[in-house]
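To: structure subgroup
Subject: Chain for Friday's discussion

All,

I'm putting the inputs and outputs inline so they're searchable in the archive.
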Amino acid sequence: MSEITYVRGDATAPQGKGVKLIAHVCNDLGGWGKGFVLAVSRRWPEPEAAYRRWHRERAGNEFGLGAMQFVQVGRYLWVANMVGQRGIRTGSKGVPVRYEAMDTALEAVAERVVELGASVHMPRIGCGLAGGKWSRTEPLIQHRLLSRGIAVTVYDYEQSAGR
């Protein structure tokens, strides 16, 4: 099984050749306004517009924890909006991240990535505003993506990287 490649940089500017898919975690409230999504929106308007429409029309679609939405933003570039966060605040039910939902979404990512022949690029999903721990997230990535031979690059952002 391959390993995750860790780099310093901006996940919205993925490195390497070929088709790339940028995966990130969204909440189940339709909110898009803090964290990594701001960097996504600065580069492309489509992922935010698609996510907001998906949430607004949720009565007629699969929107909810564990759901996945793929948005093409370039000829060889996709963004995966993964609903893996319950709400936006830490409270009596703990942190917003839902590992089971991320696992379900990562399974869908794996299917699409195999179809596209793509590599996966992401920040440390679920570990920013969602409040998760990388020690819980990394095994999900290993199980769903690396075990299938999918190349994964995780970006640790630094202020000098351009955001």
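Points worth raising on Friday:
The longest strand covers residues 77-85.
The helical segments are 36-43, 46-56, 99-116, 134-144.

D.
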